[in-house]
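Throughout this chapter, every protein is written as a compact record of paired, labelled lines. The reader may check this reading against the record printed directly beneath this paragraph:
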Amino acid sequence: MLTTDKKPTVQDFPTATLVIAGPWHRGHQLDTRPAVVVGPFGGTEFKDTATMTVVWYFTLGAPQPGDNVQAMFPHELTPLDDTLTTMNPDVFRDIVCGLRRGRFAYDDGNELRAAARQAWRERTGLADADPVARHTLHRS
């Protein structure tokens, strides 16, 4: 029997992809909750070789490495059919506020911050959807 099931990879989850996954706490995986992809583990220079994706569980507060910013395997993530541009405006506002208050290890959050700024411009009508930015805002 031929199967077409493909294991997800880091490349299937570009920065700003909305997902659901279960964060880890003290060796136990918690119930699934929404998160947003920060980028490949190790930074964008490892996007072709990384085996894990960094996600931020934004419903758990402003980003803090380890607490709500964690590296996850792609098979632990389920993409949502929504984007920063189209998601609920109150949740988007919470994400933007959290990005300003929190921190990421190294420069991991820079691309996510750029994607959130682009989504804000699109949401407010200050910019048309940029095809390059749209690539980072939408899951292929």
Remarks:
- The longest strand covers residues 33-40.
- Residues 133-140 have pLDDT under 50 and may be disordered.
- The radius of gyration is 15 Å.
- The beta strands are 18-21, 24-25, 28-29, 33-40, 53-56, 69-72, 78-79.
